[in-house]
Amino acid sequence: MANNYCESSSYLELTQEQLRKAPKIIDRVTKEIEKEDGYIALDISLELDGVWFSYDESMNPDHLETVARALIEELEVDNAFVASWAYTCSKPRIDEFGGGAMGIERGKPTIWVDATHEVMRRLKL
User: The whole model's pTM is what?
Assistant: First the structure.
């Protein structure tokens, strides 16, 4: 038996005024996710100049996108936010590793990239 993981760590820089407003948004959005999915697979930590998103087992990229998108839109963050994650496995199983990334800009659709799918697309598989 093997265990699969999705690990991630990313940071959204905020001004002090934005950081003051962030907890209310985070609380509201995480409660919405928990109500819909029954859980939230993301750790969120307020730091001195931003928000640190991480998870070391089974991070849900959709949860990360939902929280980050709410902060960016509601706090009118002008800087782009980029997050990545790694798919890992506790045993060296074939095709059990990979990763993905997203980019969020205020007012624009989220850009999603999955490493395996991107390679397959370029190889026309």
Answer: 0.92
